């Protein structure tokens, strides 16, 4: 099995489960939308602005990192702007070879201009629908509605997700600072979603550690873990190379709970030192249900191609390994089983077979 080139990784069909809409805007779009509403930016041209975003995200300062979202959210406060951002998101993912994506955002952060939560979701869907239609069926994109864990609107957002689940919304999520804001604060929302047979993922184990993962799974019954990188803290590698899993890590692996891992983002937030030292290497070797994701494409200056090729360079992964990540993600998608199977059998497997046969 030979190491794939970057062009081959770009051509390979990819599946994305963890991507934030407000973390993936085009710099030029931000410049134009900011000019329309008179919002002041830290740089006036797209190239300088793009550089400011990535440098701020790399600064090691959480305050400066969070400031980047102040600017993207500020220009997403009216229907046409939100629809444009959503459309361009799908266009960019399709151009990167993504065939299925779940894109998340917090509707409650986009109502300062007077829009209702329902209107925000409708605007995003308008943009997604337009771009999917223009792609000629090359990509399928669904929404994940996020509630902010430091706020108190999770039940309202959960009900919104259920109301829209047959109209483009695949599931629910909570995001925001983990420390001091455990997922159990939103237990009523998760219990409601379970009663409604709805899907949800929870940001957990990105920075706070094992208690966050444990609560997300055992108290809140999360279908997937957003990041989940700190599960590595429950795994011991002995001097002789043998590996011992703690009770929680063993449970996560046994239950095939998907881990939505975002290498570049995890490096920026200090959850990992580098691609080569990212826990994804050991977790993949141990056959956890690992998936590869972008998190915030603008802030990390990244794409699915960049994330996957970074892993190829770090771990010498083959096309067969990338196919494994991709099928993991498609198996874990919040999409009906027959639709997941169709994308695996009709898109993912043939796409990789075509690339593998060229070697």
Automatic annotation (TrEMBL):
Binding locations of Zn(2+): 18, 20, 203, 295
> Domain Adenosine deaminase, which positions?
13-349
Q: Which SUPFAM superfamilies match?
A: Metallo-dependent hydrolases
Record lineage: Bacteria, Bacillati, Actinomycetota, Actinomycetes, Propionibacteriales
State its cofactor. Zn(2+)
Documented EC number(s): 3.5.4.4
Q: What domain of life is recorded for the organism?
A: Bacteria
State a single Gene Ontology molecular function: adenosine deaminase activity
- Show the active-site residues: 206 (proton donor)
Indicate what this protein is called per its UniProt record.
Adenosine deaminase
Q: Where is this site: Important for catalytic activity?
A: 227
Which species does this protein come from?
A: Nocardioides exalbidus
Note on how the cofactor is bound: Binds 1 zinc ion per subunit.
- Reaction catalyzed: adenosine + H2O + H(+) = inosine + NH4(+); 2'-deoxyadenosine + H2O + H(+) = 2'-deoxyinosine + NH4(+)
Q: What does it do?
A: Catalyzes the hydrolytic deamination of adenosine and 2-deoxyadenosine.
